[in-house]
Design goal:
The protein contains 14 helices and no strands. By secondary structure, the chain is mostly helical. The structure holds the ligand C/C(=C\COP(=O)(O)OP(=O)(O)O)CCC[C@H](C)CCC[C@H](C)CCCC(C)C and ligand LXD6PMIU.
Length: 329
């Protein structure tokens, strides 16, 4: 049984006000899932690391505004996801930590989601005003991809198409927006920096996409029963688990190739600090892919890989020239 399920059953069975309060606390923590916000902050942290490594200036206030806006936009995506999944019924029994299930207030959750979207976009508009209007267009594209993933009438995630959308949003689109946002006004006049965004964002976005892919394993039965044909439902848990090492290898290969080509400093290999959780994830899903109660944490192992790998790469890119200068002394 997953932690939220354990909490839900304890809660249902009664057991005193104190234990009820702590159970609800745990459900709320599972609903907020703060570690997930690592995926939202990564594109701009990578862009910051890349600019520092290139000896280009960094606009701290733009970085902070972008970070806050990205967190609000991911909060919108997750709250709206709970609302849309409540409408299809897929979360009704399998997700006691859905904010809609916890509060019983679908409309208020939707209002809160929309509030996060409006404030997040307003902050992005401010960032765009101080850099390039294209920033806002790219972020609107990210939000559009997020809506296509889960909102009616599209619900492309229900057809197993969520992973490419996720890669596009957190990879080229968000990274290009972040690169433009951190550049001095006027520097972005040359259009969207697709080349730099693809080079920098492709590997880390694959790690983010792995988080989404792993989030489907433990709920494969509920998803199938509600017509949600996630990649894991389509492939079966065994074949899907077999893809996990390839995700990890491809994410790392896309970061190591620029080092081998001499485009990035050796220190960019620091992204390898994500390897221990990746190995644990590969082993866990390889052995237990068919046991939902044992693999409920697989999404968070993937998240640890994504966070350590992305932070390692961002720091490695930023520190490269410093360490080269130190070594040359
Ligand atoms: C909401 C997402 C996954 C949850 O999916 P699922 O319904 O399977 O989960 P539960 O079973 O737990 O309910 C993630 C979807 C990601 C989406 C394709 C792209 C989102 C883009 C963001 C809105 C953009 C963020 C801003 C940017 C500047 C970083
Ligand atoms: O709740 C989840 O499972 C996810 C939420 C989320 O915002 C996200 C974003 C990017 C990749 C994966 C995920 C999730 O899995």
């Amino acid at each position: 049984m997953s932690e939220p399920q354990v909490v839900a059953s304890r809660y249902a069975a009664g057991g005193g006000a104190a234990s009820e309060a702590s159970s609800r606390g745990r459900l709320w923590r599972a609903a907020v899932k703060w570690p997930m916000y690592a995926v939202a902050v990564m594109p701009v942290l990578l862009a910051a690391g890349w600019r520092l490594g290139q000896g280009l200036g960094l606009r701290l206030e733009q970085l902070l505004l972008f970070l806050l806006a990205a967190v609000l936009l991911l909060a919108w995506e997750n709250l709206a996801n709970d609302v849309f999944d409540a409408d299809t019924g897929v979360d009704t029994h399998g997700k006691p930590h859905s904010v809609v299930n916890l509060t019983g207030r679908r409309d208020r959750v939707l209002a809160l989601a929309n509030g996060c979207l409006v404030v997040g976009l307003a902050l992005m508009a401010l960032v765009a005003l101080r850099s390039s209007a294209v920033v806002l267009l790219l972020v609107l594209l990210c939000c559009g991809l997020g809506y296509l993933y889960q909102g009616p009438p599209f619900r492309l995630g229900y057809r197993g198409l969520g992973e490419p959308l996720c890669w596009l949003a957190f990879g080229p689109c968000a990274t290009a927006a972040a690169l433009l946002a951190l550049a001095p006004a006027g520097e972005g006049a040359g259009g969207v920096p697709w080349g730099a965004a693809l080079l920098l964002g492709s590997g880390p976005a694959l790690a983010t996409t792995l988080v989404l892919f792993c989030s489907h394993f433990h709920q494969v039965e509920e998803d199938a029963a509600h017509g949600k044909r996630s990649p894991v439902v389509r492939l079966g848990t065994q074949r899907a688990a077999g893809l996990v090492p390839w995700f990890v290898a491809a994410a790392l290969a896309l970061q190591w190739a620029p080092v081998l080509l001499g485009w990035w400093p050796l220190t960019a290999l620091l992204g390898a600090i994500g390897l221990p959780p990746a190995r644990a994830l590969i082993r866990l899903l390889g052995e237990e892919h068919h046991q939902p109660e044992r693999i409920v944490g697989s999404k968070f192992l993937a998240l640890r890989f994504q966070a350590f790998n992305g932070l390692g790469l961002a720091c490695g890119l930023a520190l490269g020239p410093w360490l080269t200068a130190l070594a040359g002394r």
